[in-house]
Design brief:
Elements: H1 2-13, H2 21-42, H3 47-68, H4 77-80, H5 93-109, H6 119-123, H7 128-144, H8 153-165, H9 172-176, H10 186-196, H11 202-217
Helix pairs in contact: 1-2, 1-8, 2-7, 2-8, 2-11, 3-5, 7-8, 7-10, 7-11
């Protein structure tokens, strides 16, 4: 915990000299959110597993729909259709077919293909590194009046400190020696800058909501005097 606080203070010092505890606490909170996002991503099921269950659900729903229309089971219909109380779920052939269509939609949305095999990535759930870059863009905007460029050394250092405060390690590209630790943040800062200008993807919007709410709830705008964008 002590190391995380020191990392958060180091990140805050890149935004303003002698950073107040309010800013440090907000950065620690963002680090916690990033850690949670990465923990959930690690537990995300595989695409193949989800597709298998969706296919099973579709088949089961269609089979139930067919059985409900079987005249030998007509005596069950009042019970299945909620006749015994207002809180009972209505189970009808049409509802089962709708459920099968929902499963078909899911199969199309989580279709087999290239890219990450994790369901969270397929669904566009914000990941930790993008959250770090989104935090850098929003906080540097508040501190300086404009978003940092991908070459901004302080912004890259901020991302690195925030990522480490969240418990993150070096990327595979850094381990392979394809890039250095700070340069690895350039593409994430580029994506975050594009997202801040509108046309947000589902993933970027989710990240922006997380970071934006933290800044709002922590009243960070009160720390930095208003500045016009360059």
């Amino acid at each position: 915990m002590q190391e995380r606080s020191e990392l958060a203070r180091g990140a805050a010092a890149l935004l303003t000299a002698d950073p107040p505890s309010q800013l440090v606490c907000a950065i620690e909170l963002i680090a916690d959110q990033i850690h949670t996002a990465e923990t959930q991503a690690a537990a995300s099921p595989r695409r193949a597993e989800v597709r298998s269950k969706l296919a099973e659900l579709r088949c089961a729903a269609l089979k139930i729909a067919k059985l409900l229309e079987d005249e030998t089971l007509h005596w069950l219909r009042p019970s299945l259709q909620g006749g015994g109380g207002r809180n009972k779920v209505r189970i009808t052939p049409d509802r089962m077919r709708w459920l099968a269509k929902d499963a078909e939609w899911g199969l199309e949305y989580v279709r087999s293909g290239r890219g990450s095999d994790k369901l969270d990535d397929v669904l566009g759930v914000p990941r930790g590194r993008f959250l770090c870059a989104a935090a850098a863009v929003r906080l540097f905007e508040l501190a300086n009046g404009s978003a940092p460029s991908k070459e901004n050394l302080k912004a890259r250092e901020f991302c690195d400190l925030l990522w480490r405060a969240a418990g993150g390690g070096v990327s595979e590209a850094v381990e392979r020696g394809d890039t250095d630790n700070l340069a690895a943040w350039e593409r994430h800062l580029t994506s975050a800058r594009k997202a801040s200008k509108g046309g947000l993807s589902e993933r970027a919007l989710g990240a922006w909501l997380i970071i934006g709410e933290t800044i709002k709830d922590s009243h960070l705008r009160d720390i930095f005097p208003p500045k016009s964008a360059e």
